[in-house]
Design brief:
Low-confidence stretches: 472-480
Strand order of the largest sheet: 3-2-1-6-5-4
Radius of gyration: 40 Å
Largest sheet: 6 strands, antiparallel
Structural class: alpha+beta
Length: 525
């Protein structure tokens, strides 16, 4: 190549391979002792393609580039606004990187890049650009010496070394021809395995839209390619053979020949899968936090309702009795006292739910298990729970075909789980319907089932049914009541007794909850 072709090649490659916003190559005129702008790539840098009209000339020692040329020392400026040497270009910049072109300490020129953002360039950039400058200087020196075969071999070697540095600066490099078909696409390592890119060669970039990609974003990218516009940070994904998703960020620069004709693209791509996955995990965490906050808000509304209702009844009853409106020993007085006692019991249950759940999440729940006949415990719990049946106008039916089935349980906690399941079944059952309780056994398991014929649980609510504070209807208008802690507590209690709580449900057909416990042999007398 000629010197003219070489400096334009260097400018294009620095921008394309290193992802810089621009690059200007100045060559040193020894007779006039000036630096002359010889190649420029970037926005507002190259209005007439590969020819510089009215090239900028900088005296040795003047400005950043003149200073680097004079001192022959590479330089990074993090903030040009604070540097007195800076000579503003057409578009003001904030940071700059500049390295000299030297051949045996003889100044040949400089390579200079600017960026509108401060602190854009790093030591790694400076190291790579210094190496590029050394290779370009070697090419310029070879051109000046006008060598034949040896010169061409060294040029090829230098180009190969430059490509190696370009590869080290990104995960992939690629090229498209004038028809936007891949002519070069380097291979890369993804998660320790080689990612084969050979299948892309010869295919048009326009035909390789990623799966499930936004149509508008892809069309905008296609429009940039067809118009020969540069692009940066275009993010897309690919599904790999193992089913995993690879996310890449792509930069591309158009290529033009000396006549201004479009010849394709060169660019780089970087694997940003880890970053995207981290962002996705963060979004999931934010969604989970929103759901948790919503559950807490609904829980507070529920508690407000659950506390207010019995307290209002208690206050009203005591007010009537204290004011003498109703005599203590009259039928109405005794009825009011009984209502106040029932509501006090309700408040006690609410407080107990809170205390139990706090013990569970703190890991302080105490379980005192002993061998017990589950059939007998179930019968006793049903007898003590007839108040639920009268309150919600349902009938409890217990299948006693099995007379004995033994398991290690904490009697109080077993009763708490079963009362919760029975009360829920009664709450969500139509009036005058039946709640069925039955026990089944295998050689290893005892299953206590509570079946209602209520409204059932919709599919979208099933995964949340055992979550704390969860209720299908959290509005104040619901008639069922409850804190939403009962099932969460019951599930934790079952697991603490080496059991399991599960359910089946269909909308309109009711629900069946199962308490499974490990079966043991009856204790000997």
């Amino acid at each position: 190549p000629s010197k003219h072709e070489l400096v334009w090649y260097v400018a294009r490659e620095v921008v394309a391979r290193l992802g810089f916003s621009d690059c200007v190559v100045y060559l040193f005129d020894e007779e006039k002792n000036i630096l002359r702008q010889s190649a420029a790539i970037g926005e507002n840098k190259n209005p007439v393609l590969n020819e510089i009209r009215n090239p900028l000339e900088i005296p040795l020692g003047k400005g950043i580039t003149g200073h680097v040329a004079q001192t022959r020392t590479p330089l990074i400026i993090d903030d040009l606004a604070e540097n007195d040497r800076y000579i503003p270009d057409i578009v003001a910049a904030r940071s700059e990187i500049c390295v000299p072109l030297l051949a045996d300490e003889r100044l040949l020129g400089v390579i200079d890049s600017e960026d509108p953002q401060p602190c854009r360039f790093t030591q790694e950039h400076l190291d790579i650009l210094t190496t590029v400058a050394a290779m370009a200087s070697a090419k310029l020196k070879l051109l000046e010496q006008d060598k034949t075969l040896e010169m061409h071999e060294k040029l090829q070697e230098t180009e190969s070394r430059f490509r190696d540095f370009a590869e080290s600066a990104s995960d992939w490099y690629w090229e498209l021809d004038e028809n936007l078909c891949y002519t070069v696409l380097s291979s890369a390592t993804v998660d320790g395995e080689q990612y084969d890119t050979s299948s892309f060669i010869g295919k048009s970039r326009l035909d390789l839209k990623p799966e499930a990609f936004d149509d508008k974003l892809w069309q905008s990218h296609v429009n940039d390619l067809k118009a020969g516009r540069a692009f940066r940070g275009f993010i897309q994904s690919r599904v790999l053979n193992d089913g995993s998703t690879l996310w890449v960020s792509i930069n591309g620069k158009p290529i033009f020949n000396h006549d201004g004709q479009f010849e394709g693209y060169r660019g780089t791509a970087s694997d940003i899968t880890a970053r995207i996955e981290a962002e996705q995990e963060l979004l999931k965490a934010l969604d989970a936090a929103k759901i948790a906050n919503r559950a807490k808000s609904e829980f507070l509304a529920t508690i407000s309702h659950e506390l207010r209702t019995p307290l209002t009844s208690i206050k009203g009853a005591l007010g009537l009795l204290r004011g003498g409106v109703v005599e203590h020993n009259s039928d109405d007085g005794r009825s009011l006292l009984n209502m106040a006692v029932r509501n006090c019991d309700t408040l006690t249950e609410l407080v107990n739910d809170f205390l139990d759940y706090e013990k569970i999440i703190a890991g302080k729940m105490t379980i005192n298990s002993t061998p017990q006949n589950i059939v007998e415990l179930t019968r006793n719990t049903l007898d003590a729970s007839q108040g639920f049946a009268r309150m919600y106008s349902v009938n409890f039916v217990f299948d006693e075909s099995i007379t004995a089935a033994w398991a290690h349980v904490d009697v109080g906690r077993f009763n708490q789980i079963l009362r919760n399941l029975i009360s829920n079944a009664a709450k969500f059952s139509p009036e005058n319907s039946t709640v069925e309780i039955y026990i089944e056994t295998t050689n290893y398991k005892i299953r206590t089932s509570v079946k209602d014929f209520g409204m059932g649980i919709a599919e979208e609510h099933k995964q949340d049914i055992f979550d704390r504070f969860t209720q299908i209807d959290a509005s104040d208008s619901r008639h069922q009541g409850g804190t939403g802690l009962g099932l969460a507590i019951s599930k934790a209690l079952a697991e603490n007794m080496n059991g399991e709580l599960s359910f089946e449900s269909s909308v309109g057909a009711g629900s069946t909850f199962y308490l499974d416990l490990p079966r043991i042999e009856p204790p000997t007398a």
